[in-house]
Amino acid sequence: MRAPQQDRSRVTRQRLLEATVDSLVEFGWSATTVAVVAQRAGVSRGAAQHHFPTREDLITAALEFMFDSRMEQARREVTELPEGNGRTEAVIGRLVDYYTGTLFKAALQVWTAAAADPELRARILPLEERFGRVAHRTAIESLGVDDSDPTVRRLVQATLDLARGLGLADILTDDSRRRTEIVRCWSAQLDAALTSLAPATPPASPAL
Amino acid sequence: MRAPQQDRSRVTRQRLLEATVDSLVEFGWSATTVAVVAQRAGVSRGAAQHHFPTREDLITAALEFMFDSRMEQARREVTELPEGNGRTEAVIGRLVDYYTGTLFKAALQVWTAAAADPELRARILPLEERFGRVAHRTAIESLGVDDSDPTVRRLVQATLDLARGLGLADILTDDSRRRTEIVRCWSAQLDAALTSLAPATPPASPAL
């Protein structure tokens, strides 16, 4: 059994991580310090620093926590996806929702800061590699396709690239109306391409 | 005839704009001040402030200058594009080059800062609107397609969204190898889709 002390510590940690993501989205990278996050989370600065000695510790932990929660949610939701017609559009719609949500907007602040800061970049690269790998695998599983075919693999990667581009198109304005049309159009393309690549149904057994 | 004084002023202005873009890419938004840019351009701070009273003036002028140069270059290069097979891949390759180049990396710093700064956002929105419109029209002209068909219009928009996503995938690591495969794969898809949408060749005139 977990002692109450450990529970409190876990709750504090989680509040700090969520406040970090909110602060990144609202105030940006420069303004998101341990002190600002601690205040937002209603946690003393000392307690925050006990959990996360540096701003980089706090921010990378926050992105990992959010990403893992999101991917776990996506895997749970796979069973709710429609089979057959409409599955591709439902998967792409959800995928694009992730890339236009809070996690993406927070990560964009960190990635952009890392582009102009070699130390931060070294710290973020392993996250980028893991996030890319897990997001690709989750998309493959949700679409229910076989990515041993190189064209299928590239089409799924292109879909993730598209989703990332749609995420970026949404950071200054609400791009949801245009995006809905793009998702529908891309889904139809992807469906047609995946169908043409799918292994043909094996012929029925001969009548002997 | 232009007076030497005007020429010097124009050269100073252009050096400041180029130094701004370089500084955004190398040092990021926060560090790109008029003083830093003036020093980088070898211009006195007073002269820099004569041209651009505020950092926002300098940075928006720099993005507009770079964007207009890029689009002008793209329009000049249209005549060099191959006709028929290979044109789509050539156009998308160039498009993606723009989104992985210096201008995109500089603009990303500004867009990301604007996402967490309402005043800057208000200043950047008209640029975003214009850049999006001109980039779409240039892509349509380069591909040589008719975007009065709504599916063609969406496919071209999706291509720009994909290019933006590929740009973002390149900011921390050199993603060029994977990107080449994605460009080839999407170009084949887009070619097939545009061909199926193209108006059929009109039948030959009857022999009367």
Automatic annotation (TrEMBL), chains A, B:
Alphabetically ordered keywords of this record: DNA-binding
Q: Mind listing the GO molecular function terms for this protein? A: DNA-binding transcription factor activity; transcription cis-regulatory region binding
Domain of life, per lineage: Bacteria
Asked whether the UniProt record includes Chaperone among its keywords, one would answer no
Q: Which Pfam families match?
A: TetR_N
Keyword Cell division appears in the UniProt entry:
no
Its recorded name reads TetR/AcrR family transcriptional regulator
Please tell me the species this chain comes from: Rhodococcus spongiicola
